[in-house]
From TrEMBL, chain A:
<dbReference type="InterPro" id="IPR016166">
    <property type="entry name" value="FAD-bd_PCMH"/>
</dbReference>
<dbReference type="InterPro" id="IPR051312">
    <property type="entry name" value="Diverse_Substr_Oxidored"/>
</dbReference>
<keyword id="KW-0285">Flavoprotein</keyword>
<dbReference type="InterPro" id="IPR036318">
    <property type="entry name" value="FAD-bd_PCMH-like_sf"/>
</dbReference>
<dbReference type="InterPro" id="IPR016167">
    <property type="entry name" value="FAD-bd_PCMH_sub1"/>
</dbReference>
<feature type="domain" description="FAD-binding PCMH-type">
    <location>
        <begin position="1"/>
        <end position="177"/>
    </location>
</feature>
<dbReference type="GO" id="GO:0016491">
    <property type="term" value="F:oxidoreductase activity"/>
</dbReference>
<dbReference type="GO" id="GO:0071949">
    <property type="term" value="F:FAD binding"/>
</dbReference>
<dbReference type="Pfam" id="PF03450">
    <property type="entry name" value="CO_deh_flav_C"/>
</dbReference>
Automatic annotation (TrEMBL), chain B:
<dbReference type="GO" id="GO:0016491">
    <property type="term" value="F:oxidoreductase activity"/>
</dbReference>
<keyword id="KW-0560">Oxidoreductase</keyword>
<dbReference type="Pfam" id="PF01799">
    <property type="entry name" value="Fer2_2"/>
</dbReference>
<keyword id="KW-0479">Metal-binding</keyword>
<dbReference type="InterPro" id="IPR036010">
    <property type="entry name" value="2Fe-2S_ferredoxin-like_sf"/>
</dbReference>
<keyword id="KW-0411">Iron-sulfur</keyword>
<dbReference type="InterPro" id="IPR006058">
    <property type="entry name" value="2Fe2S_fd_BS"/>
</dbReference>
<dbReference type="InterPro" id="IPR036884">
    <property type="entry name" value="2Fe-2S-bd_dom_sf"/>
</dbReference>
<keyword id="KW-0408">Iron</keyword>
Length: 291, 162
């Protein structure tokens, strides 16, 4: 299939889009921001017969709060996230992560639904969504289901999304006043780089830096994002101090399971996962103290 | 082939092209607007930057069908001699261009950035805003200086800005 032979349909509503997705006997694919889809089309990897263009389907572009839950439309761009006062207050780790996506152009074009659907092990918003306990609403013409993001992503580029389904909502828990998060990324340069390792941390703190609960998710160190459960259980052992942070960082070295690839070797990734977690915890404590 | 309409640099245009053709190719091949350049073709270098609804995007990753009915501004739309924008004047005055391949993209990015702020930006702010634009001649010092010069001129003489 040549690029010039690919057709495009632009649905004007979600229901029309779901109807298009349910049509059988043809190869179609959704395209939103296009920051991945267009590259794959050029590389010859993705050549559907029809692009279903949802770039301007604005009914799926929103950030709303209801009780202790925040709903994010999948077509919300990274820029929307960065400038959302609600998310800055109640999902700081996601705002942090969106800031690290590409650079201005990619933040303007790329969508959070696209970042999830692409399911890259290095996707920057994903670790943040893991520690925020994100759930995804997947809708087809006749079905609707809500599943945790951990169950959605199966491997690099592989998800449980069926042919006729699309992500229609992202649900995260609002952070409470005693919760604080941070996202740390290591890339070859500051802007526009793919993560060598990234980590999202979210802590629930009591008085005197006593940690009630901690969540840690690493990206780029396994086929999917992974939660560092051993590190997390150490966090709830007591007051966060230098010794605890150093010990947790050592455990992280053992807990991640990276591979060597064009971006870095496995050993380097282990070392950096450990270092990023240590640095992230220190920075997070400083941020907490400054609040 | 599809008939697709856009508003490019203030003018309504209709183009007959495959909907999956990139906006960059449409601008260059169908509309003869060759300021925007293809370099990496993957959204990493920013040479193809254009504004869609005043937001900077990589036109090499926007498909023509996706840009239908959108308001697009290229470097030609920012300003053409003799009616150059203050940003373009500053790039000339500061000598902020070497081979020139990345310059149109950087000017478009700088335009979106400066239109969104009302102060003279710090070096750090400029580096963040232009992080998606690479210059392989590496004349960044002068580029950053030119953006600062343009910002201070915009603030001191706002009435002369188009």
């Amino acid at each position: 299939m040549l690029v010039s032979e690919i057709d495009m349909i632009t649905p004007s509503s979600l229901s029309e889009c779901l109807m298009q997705l349910s049509k059988e006997g043809r190869i179609h694919r959704l395209i939103a921001g296009g920051t991945d889809a267009a590259v794959r089309m050029k590389e010859g990897k993705w050549r559907p017969e029809i692009w279903i263009n949802i770039k301007n389907l604005n009914e799926l572009r929103y950030i709303q709060e209801s009780e202790d839950c925040i709903y994010i439309g999948p077509l919300t761009t990274h820029k929307d996230i960065i400038y959302s006062p609600l998310l800055q207050r109640k999902a700081d780790v996601l705002v942090d992560a969106a800031r690290e996506v590409g650079a201005t152009q990619m933040q303007n074009m790329g969508t959070i639904g696209g970042n999830i659907g692409t399911a890259s092990p290095a996707g920057d918003t994903l670790p943040a969504l893991y520690v925020l306990g994100a759930r995804l609403e997947l809708t087809s013409l006749s079905t609707k289901r809500i599943i945790p993001i951990e169950e959605f992503i199966l491997g690099p580029g592989r998800t449980v999304l069926k042919e006729n389904e699309m992500i229609t909502k992202i649900l995260i828990k609002s952070q409470k006043p005693n919760e604080i998060g941070i996202f740390q990324k290591l890339g070859p340069r500051k802007a526009q780089s793919i993560s060598i390792v990234n980590v999202a941390i979210s802590l629930t703190l009591d008085q005197d830096l006593k940690c009630r609960e901690g969540k840690i998710a690493f990206g780029s160190v396994a086929p999917t994002i992974i939660r560092a459960r051993k590190c997390e259980s150490m966090l709830s052992l007591g007051t966060i101090n230098d010794e605890l942070i150093r010990n947790i960082a050592k455990i992280a070295w053992k807990e991640v399971m990276p591979i060597s690839d064009g971006r870095a070797t496995a050993t380097y990734r282990r070392d950096m996962a450990s270092a990023l977690l240590e640095r992230g915890l220190y920075r997070l404590i400083r941020r907490w103290d400054n609040q | 082939m599809k008939s697709i309409q856009f508003i490019v640099n203030g003018k309504e245009c209709t183009v007959l092209c495959p909907p999956a053709k990139t906006l960059l190719d449409v601008l260059r091949e169908d509309l003869g607007l060759t300021a925007s350049k293809e370099c990496c073709g993957k959204g990493e270098c920013g040479s193809c930057s254009v504004l869609i609804d005043n937001e900077v995007v990589c036109s090499c990753l926007v498909l023509a069908g996706q840009a239908e009915n959108q308001v697009i501004t290229t470097c030609e739309g920012v300003g053409l001699s003799p009616n150059l924008d203050v940003i373009q004047e500053s790039f000339i005055a500061e000598g902020a261009t070497q081979c020139g391949y990345c310059t149109p993209g950087i000017i478009v990015s700088a335009k979106a950035f400066l239109d969104g702020i009302d102060h003279v930006p710090s070096v750090g702010e400029i580096k963040t805003a232009l992080g998606g634009n690479l210059c392989r001649c590496t004349g960044y010092t002068k580029i950053i200086k030119a953006v600062q010069t343009a910002a201070s001129q915009k603030i001191s003489e706002p009435e002369t800005i188009r």
